[in-house]
Write a structure and sequence with these properties.
The chain is of the alpha+beta class. It is built from 7 helices and 15 strands. The chain is elongated and about 70 Å long. The structure holds uracil. Uracil binds next to helix 6. Keywords: Isomerase, RNA-binding.
Length: 241
């Protein structure tokens, strides 16, 4: 589909139509390596890449990105005590309504997915779809075989209202490395509030640091530093297709 350049910029979160036209008039926008100064110039949007002030952007119907979440950031859009993860993203991504897919605690680090696709958020957070999430929990005390067995068998988590949740589904729990008896690596198929911390507490230990290296089939890239983000090509990469 062909669209005018100012319309394309508008759809990608670069502000009002007027602001978008202004970016073009000011010579800040280049398409296929050439500065375009006519906001009404039309381009085929499929596979289009453009630059604004030197930064490259893909033209996408829906944005899907992964962020290496550092500690000290809240996933909420209206954070209470710490800055929001949204402050780590450039304005066009915030402007187009990108939001976290599920939440990590303020002190949890690792792979956080964000999108402006409401249907995808629903699918990836719904317990029905059983999307595996891998966590590495550094525990205060040595993890005994009994603790790991208890986690695999399923622990009961008390909700704030006093009800018991059914045991969380855990597909794998192991003391991660020989000689490292306080590191627990586990894969959860659901995402309840403070789930890992509450599960570890329920077996008599305590999480001191929590990291998520994997969400679905997506692994946190080794060269992505804390606070940095990257485009994900398509949701199929999360499903492993
Ligand atoms: N479980 C937790 O306890 N905290 C997180 O941030 C994620 C899973």
């Amino acid at each position: 589909m062909k669209q005018r350049l100012s319309q394309i910029l508008f759809s990608q979160g670069f502000g009002t139509r007027r602001l978008c036209a202004g970016l073009v008039w000011n010579g800040e926008v280049a398409v296929h390596g050439e500065v375009v100064e006519d906001p009404d110039a039309e381009f085929e949007t499929t596979g289009l890449r453009f630059t604004v002030a030197g930064q490259e952007w893909p033209c996408v119907d829906r944005a899907l990105i992964l962020l290496n979440k550092p500690a000290g950031y809240e996933c909420s859009q209206k954070p209470k005590h710490h800055p929001s993860v949204m402050s780590l993203l450039p304005a066009p991504l915030r402007e187009r309504g990108v939001q976290p897919i599920g939440r990590l605690d303020e002190d949890t680090t690792g792979l956080l997915l964000l999108t402006d696709d409401g249907t995808l958020i629903h699918k990836l957070t719904s317990p029905k779809h059983h999307v595996p999430k891998v966590y590495e929990a550094r525990c205060k005390h040595v993890l005994t075989a009994a603790m790991v067995e208890q986690l695999l068998a399923g622990v009961e988590l008390k909700e704030p209202e006093g009800k018991f949740q059914r045991p969380p589904e855990i597909s794998k729990a192991e003391a991660a490395e020989i000689g490292d008896e306080t590191l627990l690596r586990l894969t959860l198929l659901e995402g309840k509030y403070h789930q890992v911390k509450r599960m570890v507490a329920a077996v008599g230990n305590r999480v001191e640091a929590l990291h998520r290296p994997q969400f679905g089939a997506l692994v946190l890239p080794a060269d992505l530093k804390p606070g940095e983000w990257r485009w994900v090509g398509s949701p199929a990469e999360v499903w492993g297709q």
